[in-house]
Sequence to fold (372 residues):
Amino acid sequence: MRALNPSAPFTTFLPSTVSRGSKTQSLLCLSKSKSKSTSTSTVHFDFLASSSAAPFKSLAPLRYSAPPCSSEDLSSPVHDSSAASVVSSSGKSLKNRLRDGETLYGLFLLSFSPTLAEIAGLAGYDFVLVDMEHGPGGITEALHCMRALAATRTPAILRLPETSPVWAKKALDLGPQGIMFPMIDSPKLAKKAVSYCRFPPAGIRGSAHTVVRASDYGIDEGYLSNYEEELLIMCQIESEEAVKKADEIAAVDGVDCIQMGPLDLSASMGYLWDPGHKKVRQMLRAAEKTVLESNPTGGGKGGAYLAGFSMPFDGPVDMKARGYQMVSGAVDIGLFRNAAVEDVRRFRMSLTQSSDEEDDDGKDPDEKYWSE
Fold:
């Protein structure tokens, strides 16, 4: 696992290339710069510090040296794929990367801050999930975050506040690469969720494809032919009832991913304050096994990939080892909270230490000698 070097020049923290049809071009053309600093400080991702973290290669930002910009780079348009449905710097969609057996590592964005969304994209996350279920923002705020992510070539997933056709329609018109439906407790509800993502006759999604962002405001003429293939549909299992029907939910045609919800599951079992309880973990393991047995790569219809959120008692590397192919390791607000609390703690400790040193210096020389 590579460490991040905060003293390195800014240009070293950008993804190196993006795919454009048959060409591979630089994402941004920036002037070259060199760091004059001789001292460095290193920041590590503690929860991925073990050697088993190697599978999450895309978490560490790629080293980047900006080549000179050519007039061709600046003038040639990019219309090989929808700008709204961002393809990652690897050149493949989330759905295709899952099919290829990759394990994707992402972040939940609850702050609805475009700046934090942009930082997350530049940091190298495989995806960022903009959370409209628990975050304070709605469609407009999600759009601002999606534009920030698009600038970094990072796919966005939108989690809806509820499973409804209206919310699904408005979210899908923004052009996310994935959509997550909360509280899916039965195959019947999973089928409804899929129908909200399909235009008639396959579903009931309302159509404004000639003017919405998802189709590049009508510029992408291939949108109607490709949207089903490119969209990742995720259903959350987060109750005892849902766990019992996990096999049926995963088998619903059109459901691509099953997202485990450990917090709501623990609450439904009476362990709201103890999501790591043995009985909750046992229930999660049973659901995981059921989803993994659905085998989405088996060639037939049905089957879903396993997705989940890491917890203090269940880290990303352990989850990957059990078969998870999408792992969300943190929440933006949680990361900032931890950094802020630690910053204040260190400052107050430094004041205490400084006060102790001053008291020590004010002692009588003889008294100071004997106290030492």
